[in-house]
Amino acid sequence: MYEKAMRPEEITRLFVERSNAGDAAGVAALYEEDAVLAYPPGDRTVGREAIRVLWEKVLSNRPRFEYEDPLPTLVSGDIALTSTPPRDGAGARAQVVRRQPDGSWLRLLDQPEFVPVTREP
Fold first, then answer.
1. Own/partner long-range contacts of 95-98 (Cβ < 8 Å, ≥24 apart)
2. Per-residue pLDDT tens digits for 93-107
3. Mean pLDDT score of the chain, rounded to an integer?
4. Bridge partners of residue 81, in order along the sequence
5. How far is Cα 35 from Cα 116, in angstroms, rounded to an integer?
6. Under a CB-based contact definition with an 8 Å cutoff, are residues 22 and 55 in contact?
7. Which pairing describes strands 105-111 and 31-37: parallel, antiparallel, or unpaired?
């Protein structure tokens, strides 16, 4: 059984720990069953199982993630917006998380990278 995020901001720490351990199932457990992940850039991955499969591929390259201090969380009832400024200074990361019946929090929407939109003249 995985440690649960009892505050929205804890998801970032758990994500880093599980990713660095190569635990794709543990990363996917941070998401609701029907979550939407805006990754790979310009695309989206829908559902916990699809997110697990995606992270298996990503983690097979053994990337190393650094913890990024979260920005202040916005909470409205059982919904919260979490975000972190990437260490490389490229935009921001943002997630909508939802409180679960047991009081823990899971990601519902995840935008890990903001890719500039190129507009046609």
1. 95/11, 97/5, 97/8, 97/11, 98/32
2. 899 999 999 999 999
3. 91
4. 74, 96
5. 23
6. no
7. parallel
Cβ–Cβ under 8 Å, residues 113 and 95: no
In 1-121 the beta strands, taken as DSSP E runs, fall at 31-37, 45-46, 74-76, 79-84, 93-99, 105-111
Bond into 101 cis (ω within 30): no
pTM to 2 decimal places: 0.89
Residue with tokens 């995985």: 2
Q: Which residue has the tokens 């920005």?
A: 71
∠ Cα 37 54 92 (to 5°): 40
**pLDDT per 10-residue tile (average), the chain, 121 residues:** 95 96 98 96 94 97 89 96 81 92 98 68 60
Instruction: Enumerate residues 6+ apart whose C-beta is below 8 A from 115.
Output: 41, 42
Looking at residue 79, what is its pLDDT?
98
